[in-house]
Amino acid sequence: MQLVIGNKNYSSWSMRPWVLLREAGIAFEEVQLKFDDTGRAKGVECFSPSGKVPILVIDGEPVWDSLAIAETVAERFPEKQLWPADARARCVARSICAEMHSGFQALRGAMPMNIRSRHPGKGLTPESRRDIERVVQIWAACRARYGAGGALLFGRFSIADAYYAPVVTRFQTYAVSLPPAAQAYCDAVLGLRAVREWMDAARRETEFVAGDEPYATHHR
Amino acid sequence: MLLIIGNKNYSSWSLRPWLAMKVHGVPFDEKRIHLYAAASKAEILRYSPAGKVPVLHDGPTVVWDSLAILEYLAERQPRLWPRAPAERARARAIAAEMHAGFASLREHMSMNVRKRYPGKGRTPEVLADIARITAIWAEAKGPFLFGEFTAADAMYAPVVLRFRTYAVEGPNRSYMDAMLALPAMREWIEAAEREPESIPELDLYE
To answer: What sign for the dihedral angle of Cα B94, B99, B100, B106?
Structure first.
């Protein structure tokens, strides 16, 4: 099984399945492609007709898109319980992942993932503030209703945490001030071994992708 | 089960789970909320924590977002995805691609069942989206993407209606015809045409 990803510093979609597989202890071979200036991963057409990372190559077939990868992996490794076992909790987990998958455009546009950089206070627009409020609301509801078994959204680690991990790194990059419960959740995610491993690798990357750097003051 | 949806003329996200449930014979009640009106937001929030349609209520269980609803239904109706694991993975990939992508198509060729805007909305980015959809549909096993109607077809159903409105020629005609011939699809189209409300912001090319 291969996972094809983009730059670890910038590719939030790549981070999700990578953290999911690694944190769940599922073995895979990592194939990293680097973005060009337009944000296209060089060589991606060799792996998938969609032209986008991430891609999971499983049994020789490409599965593209982070959410399809998550569902496919959850189905192939049921013993890992990547979705919550409780049916109602699972519904909520799927709903909040799907909401992340097609929403939060303002947050994504104004605060692109950039793990190694610090841009405190940047990217706060009325629209991105509304997205942040919704994220905080989602986290609070999940923690209150389903989080009793641990520090994560549904207690123990699930796809939902992998899905929101890039948001946690954005809140760090842009120094978004959060209510204590949301900050505690961020700290729990930042403490996950797979998240730490990804972020360490991101900090070592030196490629500069202009399209993901709206707040850079100098071009390295 | 209660499915809360928006205007049938405009709400492409609502069509997806509605059609999947109809085609697969899942009984449900529907509640339609007129979008973009003064009271819409408050009305939607009564049913949906995310403040968006569609949302499905099944007893105490609440599922929101079209793709999450389809996965919820598929747990009970496994035939909503293709049976073979490799095909199921591919179906999920193209469904997810629709869910998070094709932003230009969605913006410039928004769903508007009863209107005809031939030739409108064809920006270079939209044409690239159409080319990608054409490639996906070219691999349809027939009559639907994976033979029988699956959740992947539900995700692409609004695109068929868009191509009808904007007179996009080229993509797999027999696939579009199969979709438009579904009794459930005809029911949706007729209801959309009868809807009294219109939303001027979404009638893009008046």
So the answer is: positive
CB contact under 8 A, A72 and B92: yes
Residues of chain B contacting A62 with CB distance shorter than 8 Å:
93
The rounded distance, in Å, linking the Cα atoms of B126 and B106 is 9
Q: Say how far apart CA B136 and CA A93 lie, in whole Å.
A: 29
Q: Do residues A41 and A47 lie in contact, with contact meaning Cβ atoms separated by under 8 Å?
A: no
Query: Percent helix, strand, coil in chain A (nearest 5)?
Result: 50, 10, 40
**Residue B110 gets which letter from DSSP?**
-
Within 8 A of B124 by CB-CB distance, chain A residues are none
Q: What is the pTM of this model?
A: 0.96
Specify whether the CB–CB gap between B60 and A83 falls below 8 A: no
Q: Residues, chain A, total?
A: 220
The answer for A 50-89 residues in CB contact with B (under 8 A) is: 50, 58-59, 61-68, 71-72, 75-76, 87-88
> Could you tell me the two tokens for B195?
């809807």
C-alpha angle B195-B121-B41 in degrees, rounded to nearest 5: 45
ipTM: 0.95
Residue B103 contacts by C-beta under 8 Å, 6 or more apart in sequence?
A: none
What kind and span of H or E run contains B29?
Answer: strand B29-32
How remote is the C-alpha of A74 from its chain's centroid? 16
Instruction: Please report residues of B whose CB lies closer than 8 A to that of A99.
Output: 50, 64-65, 68
Per-residue pLDDT tens over the stretch B123-171: 999 999 999 999 999 999 999 999 999 999 999 999 999 999 999 998 9
CA distances (Å), origin B105, targets B43, B101, B109, B199: 28, 9, 5, 19
Contact criterion met (CB < 8 Å) for A101 and B99: yes
Q: Do A50 and B89 touch (CB under 8 A)?
A: no
Residue A128 CA to residue B80 CA, distance in Å, equals 35
Find the Cα–Cα–Cα–Cα dihedral A99, A77, A88, B148, rounded to 10°.
70
Please give, rounded to a whole number of angstroms, the shortest distance from the CA of B89 to a CA of chain A.
Answer: 6
- Bridge partners for B57 per DSSP: B2, B62
